[in-house]
Amino acid sequence: MGIKKVKANTPGRREATFDDFKDLTRFAPEKSLVKIRRRRGGRNSQGKITIRHHGGGAKRYMRIIDFKRDKYDVPAVVASIEYDPNRGARLALLHYVDGAKSYITAPINLKVGDRVMSSRQLIEIKTGNALPLQFIPAGLAVSSVEMEPGQGAKIARGAGNLVYVMGVEGKYAQLKMPSGEIRLVKKECLCTVGQASNPDKRHISLGKAGRSRHLGIRPTVRGTAMNPVDHPHGGGEGKQSIGLRHPKTMWGKPALGVKTRKKRRSNRLIIKRRAKRK
Which end of the chain has fewer surrounding CB within 10 Å, N or C? Predict the structure, then answer.
């Protein structure tokens, strides 16, 4: 992927940058692997907003992506590299030798015509192949990693994400996460060799509010700009401080710097916590 700038003929386009899509080989999705995406605008079954800042946006189809890679020991050929409006990473359309088709999140440098395979046994360690962590050499970058065997990829699925395998000891493999955290994951968990595609995604500047609305992102408003009935920070004449000992969320709970992670079973699997932001 590359990033392109356009002629600055309006203030909104002056700072905007765009994806050039030069790495794509096909623009129409595989019809058998798409479904309609139900949009809820951040509301639950009762119609109450449970996720703020969601709503509107351009219509999209969902691509059905094979995060489990459970078609073991069946070779496949990469038929195309495609765009997915629901995520930053590119998709690779696989054609298996038995006639089946599926989408996977494409790693960097995966090309049309490459042969890939998924297996629970030791196979060739090359970009796009999926195999258990116990067979990955120390220091190799992987993506789309499972947290539990057979569960499907959960870790490092986003554009440009990667995880380093630090080593395998006993029942677990040590992974260095994108945040700097080092955690243990069962060595039987599958991973895809290579860094997730489209790392330049994070450098795209939207340039104007309208592009956020097209993505389905609604405005975020400061608490101090609200009325007292809407937020603990609200009210006052003019530019007013929050008037509290500590900042609070909209629901009155402590905010900014307060630990919110509850007691989780996976805490024992974290060897080193991520570095604090400065």
Answer: C
